[in-house]
Amino acid sequence: PIYYPSGKPHMGHAYSSIVADIFARFKRIEGYDVLFLTGTDEHGQKIQKEAEKMKKDPKVFCDEISQTFRSLTKILNLTNDDFIRTTETRHLNSVNEIWNRLIKSGDIYLDKYSGWYSVSDEAYYDEDEIEEKDGKIHVFVQIPHSSQNRRIERFRCKTEDVLVILAKKGVEVG
Q1: I want to staple 147 with a disulfide (CB 3.0 to 4.6 A). Which of 17, 26, 27, 137 is the partner?
Q2: Angle in degrees, CA 123, 67, 22, rounded to 5
Q3: In whole angstroms, how large is the CA radius of gyration of the chain?
Q4: H/E element holding 156?
Q5: CB atoms within 10 A of CB 112
Q6: How far is CA 44 from CA 86, 93, 129, 137, 157, in A?
Q7: pTM value?
Q8: How far apart are the first and last CA of the chain?
Q9: Collapsed DSSP state (helix, strand, coil) of residue 10
Q10: What is the DSSP string of 123-154?
Q11: β-pair type (82-85, 108-118)
């Protein structure tokens, strides 16, 4: 699992980690060459807001929380082969290499996007997925969110399957 360290681990993190570990163990028993990775995805407004609440620099906040998640792998006796943080140099270098290849080949391009953004979900929603009720935006009509209508620039892929692009370019994934 990839953990989003905006708070301390909870039962859901333990559950998803144990389930992933079960699959890894069984696939190894079946003779598969398994590379079981886990780690923390350290970006986003939720992390920034939590760090501000704790009066900490976001990197320092992530350092502390990430260590808690790394410890979880030991406590749960997981058989993961590696624990990766998205703020680590090795991760940044790999992502930059792949990103630059995709830009150079023209497989991704900068475009403009507009829609309702939910900070708690870190996701955009279409007009047909939201409803305004009592001055609040509700996603799927049920869940109240702190949402804002935003216009941003972001990169898009010419095709939905980035893994297919990478495989065609000879990039080994997984």
Answers
A1: 137
A2: 75
A3: 19
A4: strand 147-157
A5: 9
A6: 12, 19, 22, 21, 21
A7: 0.68
A8: 14
A9: coil
A10: EEE-GGGEEEETTEEEETTTEEE-EEEEEEEE
A11: unpaired
146-170 b/e (C-beta count within 10 Å ≥ 16 → b): ebeeeeeeeeeeeeeeeeebbeeee
59-118: pLDDT as tens digits: 999 999 999 999 999 999 999 999 999 999 999 999 999 988 888 888 887 777 676 777
The token pair that represents 82 in the structure block:
């590696």
Inform me whether the pLDDT recorded for 40 exceeds 80.
yes
Alpha helices in 7-149 (DSSP H): 11-29, 45-53, 58-75, 89-105
Amino acid, res. 107? D
22-31 contacts at long range (C-beta below 8 A, 24 or more positions apart): 24/79, 24/80, 25/79, 28/79
Decide: 122 and 46 in contact? Cβ < 8 Å: yes
Residue 141: C-alpha distances to residues 45, 118, 131 (Å): 23, 14, 6
Backbone angle region of 97, left / alpha / beta, with phi > 0 → left and psi within -120 to 50 → alpha: alpha
Query: What are the backbone dihedrals phi and psi of residue 56, each rounded to the nearest 5 degrees, phi first?
Result: -130, 155
How many Cβ atoms sit within 10 Å of the Cβ of residue 69? Answer: 22
Q: Which amino acid is at 90?
A: R
Taking a C-beta distance cutoff of 8 angstroms, is the pair 51, 87 a contact? no
